[in-house]
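job 3f2a | input accepted
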Amino acid sequence: MSDHALTTMTRTQGANQALKDGTVTPAGYSLQFAEIPVLVKGFRRMVRDLEFDVSEMALTTYLTAREHGVAFTALPVFLVRGFHHGAIRYNVRSSIREPKDLEGRRVGVNRGYTVTTGVWARGILASEYGVDLEKVTWVLSGDEHVASYVPPVNVEPAGQGADLGEMLIRGEIDAVVGVDVDHPDVAPLIPDPEQAAVAALRERSFYPINHLVVVKDSVLQQYPDAGSALFNAFNDAKQLYVSRLRDGDASTDIDRMYARVLQTTGTDPLPYGVEPNRPMLETLMEFAFAQRILTKPVAIDEVFA
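job 3f2a | predicted structure (305 res):
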C-alpha cells in the first residue's frame, strides 16, 4: 500500500531539516512540502483557507484561530523558541528611561496584535517590569491573520504603508516591538537583553515558545494515526539536530542560541510533548488572556491532538 501524501508547509530549519531532505519520514505518510518564501504568509493561507494538510504555525495565531473556529489542531511539536527581552526597542532621544515609562505612550507592534513575539514581549513588560499594558497605545503595522479577531480599544493601525522603524526615528511612536531598526538613536529598552533572557531561563525556566505544528481536523479524522506518525517523525528529525548541537555544530545565530540554551540547562533546547512544556504554555495562555487575545482561559490538554 502506498503512503498517504500530506501537503506540508514549514520553513527549513535545523529541527526539521531531516524531514525536509527525506532522511526522516512519518510512518505511512509522505510529506509534499510547499515552499513559501515569507513564512507568515503561509500562516495566513493556512488560517484563512486551510490550504495545507500540515503546517507550521505561530502559537498565539493558533490559539486565536482555534477560538474563532478554524478547523485544525496542534501537535505538541514546538519548532521555534526564542528570547524576547530584546524585542522592545526605543528612541534614546525620548524621555523614556525604563519600561514603566511606556505607560501613556504609543508603541509600535510588528504586523498584528496577536503576533506571538508581541505577546511574549508585552508579557515580559507586565510580569517583570510592572508595565500596565492597558495604559499603552499599541500601533500595528498590519492586520491579523484571524480576520474575525477584534483587538482591544487601546490598539490602533499605523496606517497603510506605515514604516514603524521610520516612525520611531521621527518620534511619531515611542518604542517598537518586533521591529529591527538599525539607527544610532534606537536601542533595546531592557539593558543587556540577552543576559536578561538567559537569567530568566536559568532562574525561572522562562523560555518562550513561538511556533508549533497544526494538522487539519479533516486529516486527523480520516487518518487516526496521522498525529502520532507526524509527531514521531518531527521528534526524530529534531533529535538529529540536537545531536549536532551537542557536537558543536552551530553555524547560524539561531543554532548558537539553542546551543546556549543547551549549555545553560544541560537539556534538550527544543523539547516536544505537552508535559515538558506545560509551564510555558500556561504562561503564554495567561498572557494571551490578560492581553485580551483570548476571551476565556484555555485548558492546555484540549488544544493538542
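job 3f2a | The CA atoms of residues 12 and 20 lie 7 Å apart.
job 3f2a | closed
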